[in-house]
Amino acid sequence: MPLPSLLARTAETLALATAGGLGLGLTGVPGGYLSGAILAVSAAALAGRPMLVPVPLMRTIFVLLGISLGSVMTPEMLHGMAKYPLSIAVLLVGMSCIGLACAAYLRIVHGWDRVSAYLASAPGGMSQVLAIAAEVGGDLRAIAIVQSMRVVIIAVGLPSGLALIGLASHVSRPAGSPMTWASLDEFGILAAAAIVGAVVFHRLRFPGGLLFGAMFASGALHGTDLVHFVLPWWATKTAAIALGAVIGARFAHMPLRLFVNFIGAAFGSFAVAVTIAALFATVVIRLMMLPVPEVMMAFAPGSVDAMMLLALSLHLDPVYVGAHHVMRIFFVALATPFMVRREKGKPKPAAATQVPEAMQEPMDE
Questions:
Q1: For residue range 276-329, what is the model confidence (pLDDT) as tens digits?
Q2: Which terminus of the chain has fewer Cβ atoms in its 10 Å neighbourhood, N or C?
């Protein structure tokens, strides 16, 4: 793509994301900076605008989010992970039920083939799911729409839903660290460590490697009191808006008619998934007496980056939420190829196996 076109598309995407994010964020809506940006950019993309977030900028966003998430870690938080095994075990059983139930729904109600139904129902790992779909002949367009809609609905609806039932309030602005010469030195150390961690985890193909590599590096420095710098509130909100642009741009180059054709399947499978997730989350809440918002965020089958950012903005425990989402993505990565191995069939015609351009870009989940 010529550089002027690349810059123009990127500028338009970020401008719309900023307008949408500020529109909801400044009113104090929980998760408003992220959800407002998602709504604005996805609406423009479906209306035919060429929304785009370049891959280098996308990767930078993930590293910044990792730095922000790691900055709230303390030794006490890390020690608390010993109480999570039961909760994680319940999560994995719940994710298995979600995959099987959603696949059955898509096959019975919407007449999908077995391969496409299983892959569209996988609760996470969208990049891997699309790669497997291309290999075994699944309908990439249908799978991409259902998977992306689940991410958008959860990112936009979960914070608002928690607020409506009184479990999340309007979020106050975090103070962050003042920008001084000393803080810039600490930020340089923090940024260098986060970049190294992100690159190492990404090279190792760790699920959400860019985000979690930076988060673990930042958490190690903050948890050992080697670094005290915290990104200013405006930097965190800017990263939230940019992430909303990334998620919304997934719908670029997708014909509106095609989107409408699969909207029923997307909302129906989402309803099945969120109902099952809520049931298993209730079991954990009753057994372990954990805070409801933290458990709901940990069990939500959304993208890792969006869920972790929402946990940060709602002042939830990032260690608890992060541990569950890492295990969820690992589980999906291991189980999905096994589930579709028996379902391999003849490849679909080319028109049925093309994925919209924006959904071909690497994703952090």
A1: 999 999 999 998 888 888 899 899 887 777 787 788 777 788 778 878 887 887
A2: N
Integer Cα distance of 34 and 18 in angstroms: 10
Task: Classify 364 as helix, strand or coil.
Answer: coil
- What is the average per-residue pLDDT within 29-54? 87
DSSP tag of 350: G
Alpha-carbon torsion (149, 151, 154, 160), positive or negative:
negative
In tens, the pLDDT along 75-126 reads 655 565 566 788 989 999 999 999 999 999 999 999 998 888 998 998 876 7
pLDDT digits (tens, 9 = 90+) for 152-205: 888 888 887 777 766 655 444 444 555 554 567 788 889 999 999 999 988 987
Read off the pTM. 0.72
Chain-centre distance of CA 46, in angstroms?
20
Place of tokens 């590599």: 213
One-letter amino acid at 46 equals L
Vertex 87 angle, CA 171 and 212, to 5°: 60
Please classify residue 80 by burial: count the beta carbons closer than 10 Å to its beta carbon, then call 0-12 exposed, 13-18 middle and 19+ buried: middle
Pull the structure tokens for residue 128. 């891997």
DSSP 80-135: GGGG-HHHHHHHHHHHHHHHHHHHHHHHHHH---HHHHHHHH-SS-HHHHHHHHHH
Does domain 3-360 fall into CATH 1.10.10?
no
Say if CB 277 and CB 98 are below 8 A apart.
yes
- Residue spans per domain, the chain: 3-360
- Asked if 363 contacts 127 with a C-beta cutoff of 8 angstroms, the reply is yes
